[in-house]
Design a protein that fits this description.
The complex is a heterodimer of chains A (470) and B (587).
Chain A lengths: L3 E2 L2 E5 L2 E5 L9 E5 L5 E10 L2 E6 L12 E4 L5 E4 L6 E4 L15 E4 L10 E2 L4 E3 L3 H4 L4 E2 L6 E3 L5 H11 L1 E2 L6 E10 L1 H13 L6 E7 L10 H15 L3 E7 L1 H14 L13 H9 L3 E3 L5 E9 L8 H9 L2 E4 L2 H5 L12 E2 L15 H25 L6 H18 L9 H12 L12 H7 L17
Parallel strand pairs in A: 9-17, 14-20, 14-21, 16-17, 16-18, 18-20
Antiparallel strand pairs in A: 1-7, 2-3, 3-6, 4-5, 4-7, 5-6, 8-10, 11-19, 12-13, 12-15, 19-20, 21-22
Helix pairs in contact in A: 2-3, 6-7, 9-10, 9-11, 10-11
Chain B lengths: L3 E10 L2 E5 L8 E5 L4 E8 L3 E6 L11 E8 L1 E4 L7 E2 L6 H8 L18 E5 L6 E2 L4 E6 L5 E5 L6 E6 L2 E3 L4 E6 L5 E5 L2 E4 L8 E3 L10 H6 L7 E5 L6 H11 L4 E7 L3 H10 L16 E6 L5 H20 L3 E7 L1 H14 L13 H9 L3 E4 L7 E10 L9 H9 L2 E2 L4 H5 L12 E2 L6 H7 L4 H25 L6 H18 L13 H22 L5 H5 L2 H8 L10 H15 L3
Parallel strand pairs in B: 8-21, 19-24, 19-25, 20-21, 20-22, 22-24
Antiparallel strand pairs in B: 1-2, 1-6, 2-5, 3-4, 3-6, 4-5, 7-17, 9-11, 9-14, 10-13, 11-12, 13-15, 15-16, 18-23, 23-24, 25-26
Classes of the chains: A alpha/beta (470), B alpha+beta (587).
Bound molecules: adenosine-5'-triphosphate (ATP), adenosine-5'-diphosphate (ADP) and magnesium ion (2 copies).
């Protein structure tokens, strides 16, 4: 029998303290009933002999100390799952909000999951073609990777994420795939953008959405990504699907965590975020991956907005320390009208090395990538110098590098929102850009590849650069 | 392990559990928590309660449940079977857990760290009647194709061998009997245990003697670490800490490698697990995995076990050191270990020091690095051995003023400073040549002169001077443009660029470039400096930089790093070409 308590002693921020508790467990699921009849859910954060600290997901507004009933449900939070979740939309706590029926559970899973045994992991090495040159050639995404987008307010991360979701494919394979989408504290417009984009392309049939909007309870955001990832694990590791998980916006998630931590009066780490933020984020991000002898996989694209575009802020910083690279968006490129405004130099895919090359993309891929990075970096540096000293101060060769870096942004990085380039097309643009500098400068490329792939017919400097795209 | 029920839980807060009524509890004793027997360790004791850090997830645990004491400190198992293993932070074998528990790590899993069934060929080297003391090697087991596991007389035992057997044994079989002075007989087994928080003893520490060769040019040439030395590698995310550490694990000339993945990525451990069995150790010609032990307590695994992982690793490393081996311990990342300490300390409501880290952070870091060194081992044969430590540091926001970096720099002798600016240009390893240092440099001079070349030190110092000069000249260029430089200064810039790109830059993912012997390192740098020396002469006579750069031999210098180790003769040809082509520019 479930015991009911009327013994709330304190309410502090999103927390309540319940006294005289018996047989309550750490992390147990809690249900409270307000005098208004309103039902809310929560979770035990700390438990002593006769006292429990409980965080309430829907917030504590309206809770009164003497008339609110508290029930401890004797289990941790679980998500009911079956294949019927595909095509459905849920709120941030996993309740349907699309007028569809309740899910009849084939399985109920603890939303905290368990860590994948590192010995059971299989290394992600299948190239995913996103159709976006600056990702495919320079910051290659592979199946089972966690690759976040570091964005800023007002930058087109939603467009980019849905373009990736739309275009992503593993070459030469038709396999079962699904998209799991978790929204945490984003606006109605942004959520709606994803939903209608998924509708437009038919992806909605293969999607599961968990939506907590800006006006939904903040603390609920702590469980929303866990719901989504539990669903993803079920689809990937029990139903053999290749799952792409999009988590947006992780910044709101971290803020909810900070709110709870502050209410508990914990010793804060940097900028008020709890000292365990790294560990907490890791328990989400590390749920991506592949497992030996399992057909499915989880590829994860968390999106976060960097407060003040600052990459050293704890949220992007700790994320970058856990994820397998990052795609960084640049306000400067965005203002120049370049979509997608991917700042390629500080962006990184750590798993690219085993996903590219002969039999995966093309033999020359790694060389072209290194050369483009080095040359673009040099061009950018020369440009900075030119800003101070004037173009005239540049050597002839540096002027060519400047041109290369300008064209690189204009023709390689920039592309249409529906433009889906094959890896060969992307590499071809890269090679053509490299004709701007003298052949001797191609130090990162093996001679055999220069011979085989360097276009000889166009002298780029004077030609209409549009030739590049033909 | 025998367990007796003794106490009741009174509080659960994350990985920290408080229990009342533990009788005879001692600090750092291992306990089992609740009916699920979760493994924990006592980290605080008061008159009537004990605070326990639990190495597994505590959800579903509550007050009133039992705690069982084991009366044993947290210990590791030592003996044949360690090599090629992968363990979690408290030495549970992850491969066994996968086969018994499945793909995910669930709770209450128990497994022996060392296989109890496997039989090893024990080859005695002592004989009946020998007088032996702690640390003496009494027999040998071929543990892997590379490693001879030396069975030592356990610590605290001294006496005469009464019996010793030659046969196939499991680690718990008796292999010898030793009678001590009091006349008691000790049954010696291959399996030993040692508490992880207690350094294993040795006779004495010795000053370092030789470099630990890593095959990484920037490290071996400019910022070397010694066998028995300590180094740290701080850098923001993506700057290359892990790749450098993997490179060292692959190519360094230690005989045993302990790699600790402490609170880092799961896939990085998988990478090692898949790659090391395939790669060939350049010294023994056998697969690298045969000299490697992995500790993997990834970021999503329980945080208390992460705190322990570093101790588990170093204790195993010390054990192999005690056999007389050169051991290298690589920890990625020590910051995650420090953060685990901070998290536990926070739950204990201890008075926080800087940035919430406990006040004892500095002591813990320095006592960890103090377990390194070149030593004279216990035992009567005065073996020498070394244990080197390389620790990654992950400073928040890349800001080195934070406590973990600062406390680490206070103890370690080598600082490899990674710069994200270099990483963005894909200049890898992104070790900044201007701010990094090695305090071992001068002590190793004799070694280099003797082992490689009399010219070695001069060559190295000259090229470093050029890199320093480049930095100053770049300042001038930034202010007034490149035209303000003399032709000699332009040559300096060009040579410095060549040192950076053709020597320092080293691609970890290129089969040939990944490893350079010290000989090859010397030869590459010599080519670059030879070009510089000859160019200096002609540039005074009006030969332009453009002309020098267009010499065909330039391309050969650029490609020199791809010359294979078996072809090092090719270097003297290139050197001749440098001299003849440059002198022909004045014709
Ligand atoms: N680790 C470092 N520490 C200090 N300064 C550095 C470091 N790495 C590079 N720099 C400086 O950055 C500046 C520009 O870098 P660099 O000279 O590599 O560009 P570049 O050579 O023009 O480009 P490329 O690599 O394409 O040839 C130089 O002043 C160089 O010394
Ligand atoms: N020596 C190297 N050669 C080539 N690429 C490297 C090298 N070092 C680092 N990298 C690149 O940088 C990425 C990040 O390196 P990593 O060691 O994982 O960084 P950190 O551990 O500092 O976060 C790697 O995935 C790889 O692409
Ligand atoms: Mg790393
Ligand atoms: Mg450069």
């Amino acid at each position: 029998m479930i015991k009911e308590y009327l013994t709330i002693s304190d309410v502090a921020g999103p927390l309540i303290i319940v006294e005289k508790t018996i047989d309550v467990k750490y992390q147990e699921l809690v249900e409270i009933e307000l005098s208004s009849g309103d039902i809310r859910r929560g979770q035990v954060l700390e438990i002593t002999e006769d006292k429990a600290v409980v965080q309430i997901f829907e917030g504590t507004t309206g809770i009164d100390v003497s008339n609110t009933k508290v029930r401890f449900l004797g289990k941790v939070i679980e998500l009911p799952l079956s294949l019927d979740v595909l095509g459905r939309i849920f709120d941030g706590s996993g309740r349907p909000i699309d007028d569809g029926p309740q899910i009849i559970a084939e399985k109920k899973l603890d939303i905290n999951g368990n860590p994948i045994n590192p010995y059971a992991r299989d290394y992600p090495n299948n190239f995913i073609q996103t159709g976006i040159s600056s990702i495919d050639v320079l910051n290659t995404l592979v199946r089972g990777q966690k690759l976040p987008i570091f964005s800023g307010s007002g930058l087109p991360h939603a467009k980019l994420a849905s373009q990736i979701a739309r275009q992503a494919k593993v070459l030469g394979k038709e396999e079962k795939f699904a998209v799991v989408f978790a929204a945490m504290g984003i606006t109605f417009e942004e959520a709606n953008f994803f939903i209608s984009d998924f509708r437009r392309t038919g992806a909605i049939e293969k999607s599961v959405m968990f939506v907590n909007l800006a006006n939904n309870p903040a603390v609920e955001r702590i469980i929303t990504p866990r719901m989504a990832l539990t669903c993803a694990e079920y689809l990937a590791f029990e139903k053999d699907m290749h799952v792409l998980v999009i988590l947006t916006d992780m910044t709101n998630y971290c803020e909810a965590l900070r709110e709870v931590s502050a209410a508990r009066k914990e010793v804060p780490g940097r900028r008020g975020y709890p000292g365990y933020l790294y560990t907490d984020l890791a328990t989400l991000y590390e749920r991506a991956g592949r497992i030996k002898d399992k057909k499915g996989s989880i590829t994860m694209i968390p999106i976060l907005t960097m407060p003040e575009d600052d990459k050293t802020h704890p949220i992007p910083d700790l994320t970058g320390y856990i994820t397998e690279g990052q795609i960084i968006l640049s306000r400067e490129l965005h203002h120049k009208g370049i979509y997608p405004p991917i700042n390629v130099l500080p962006s990184l895919s750590r798993l690219k090395d085993k996903g590219i090359g002969l039999d995966k993309t093309r033999e020359d891929h790694a060389n072209v990538m290194n050369q483009l990075f080095a040359s673009y970096a040099r061009g950018k540096e020369a440009k900075e110098l030119a800003v101070i000293l004037g173009e005239a101060a540049l050597t002839e060769i540096d002027k060519k590098y400047v041109k290369l870096s300008d064209d690189f942004e204009e023709f390689f990085v920039k592309q249409g929102e529906d433009e889906n380039r094959t890896i060969e097309e992307s590499l071809a643009i890269g090679w053509k850009l490299l004709t701007i500098i003298p052949k001797e400068e191609l130090k990162r490329i093996k001679d055999e590849f220069i011979e085989k792939y360097l276009p000889t017919d166009i002298a780029m400097e004077d030609k209409d650069i549009n030739a590049v795209k033909s | 392990m025998e367990t007796i029920e003794t106490a009741k839980i009174i509080k659960v807060a994350g990985p920290v559990v408080v229990a009342k009524g533990l009788k005879n509890a001692k600090m750092y004793d291992v306990v089992k928590v609740s009916g699920q027997k979760l493994i924990g360790e006592i980290i605080e004791l008061s008159k009537d309660s004990a605070t326990i850090q639990v190495y597994e997830e505590t959800s579903g645990i509550g007050p009133g449940e039992s705690v069982f004491s084991t009366d044993m400190p947290l210990s590791v198992e030592l003996g044949p079977g360690l090599i090629s293993s992968i363990y979690d932070g408290i030495q549970r074998p992850l491969d066994i857990l996968k086969s018994t528990k499945g793909d995910f790590i669930t709770r209450g899993a128990e497994a022996f760290a060392i296989d109890r069934e496997k039989k090893w060929d024990f080859e005695p080297i002592s004989k009946v009647g020998d007088k032996v003391t702690s640390g003496d090697i009494i027999g040998i087991v071929q543990e892997s194709s590379i490693v001879k596991h030396k069975i030592m007389v356990p610590y605290g035992i001294k006496g005469e061998i009464k019996e010793i057997y030659k046969d196939k044994f499991t680690v718990t079989d008796t292999i010898a009997l030793i009678k001590d002075r009091e006349g008691s007989i000790h049954e010696i087994k291959m399996l030993q245990k040692w508490p992880v928080r207690k350094p294993r003893p040795y006779k004495k520490k010795l000053p370092p003697l030789e470099p630990l060769i890593t095959g990484q040019r920037v490290i071996d040439m400019f910022f070397p670490i010694t066998k028995g030395g300590t180094a740290c590698i701080p850098g923001p995310f993506g700057s290359g800490k892990t790749v450098v550490q993997h490179q060292i694990s692959k190519w360094c000339n230690a005989e045993i490698i302990l790699f600790i993945g402490c609170g880092e990525r799961g896939n990085e451990m998988t990478d090692v697990l898949l790659e090391f069995p395939e790669l060939i150790d350049p010294y023994s010609g056998k697969p690298l995995m045969e000299r490697t032990i992995l500790i993997a307590n990834t970021s999503n695994m329980p945080v208390a076990a992460r705190e322990a992982s570093v101790y588990t690793g170093i204790t195993i490393a010390e054990y192999y050191r005690d056999m007389g081996y050169n051991v290298a311990l690589i920890a990625d990342s020590t910051s995650r270990w420090a953060e685990a300490m901070r998290e536990i300390s926070g739950r204990l409501e201890e008075m926080p020091g800087e940035e919430g880290f406990p006040a004892y952070l500095g002591t813990r870091i320095s006592s960890f690095y103090e377990r390194s060194g070149r030593i004279k081992c216990l035992g009567s044969d005065d073996k020498e051995a070394t244990l080197s430590i390389v620790g990654a540091v992950s400073p928040p926001g890349g800001d080195l003023s934070e406590p973990v970096t600062q406390n680490t720099l206070r103890t370690v002798q080598v600082f490899w400073s990674l710069q994200d600016k270099l990483a963005y240009k894909r200049h890898f390893p992104a070790i900044d040549w201007l701010t990094s240092y090695s305090l071992y440099l001068s002590g190793l001079s004799e070694y280099y002169k003797k082992e490689i070349s009399e010219e070695y030190i001069e060559l190295r110092d000259k090229s470093m001077a050029l890199l320093q000069e480049e930095a100053e000249l770049e300042e001038i260029v930034r202010l007034v443009g490149v035209d303000a430089l003399s032709s000699h200064e332009k040559l300096v810039l060009e040579t410095a660029r060549s040192i950076r790109e053709d020597f320092l830059l080293q691609d970890a993912f290129d089969i040939t470039d990944s490893y350079s012997s010290t000989k090859k390192q010397f030869l590459i740098l010599k080519l670059i400096m030879e070009f510089h020396k000859n160019a200096e002469k002609v540039i005074e006579r009006g030969v332009t930089m453009e002309k020098l750069n267009s010499l065909p031999v330039k391309a050969k210098i650029i490609r020199a790093k791809y010359i294979e180790e078996k072809n090092l003769k090719a270097f003297s040809e290139i050197e001749k070409e440098i001299i003849s082509q440059i002198s022909s520019t004045t014709d």
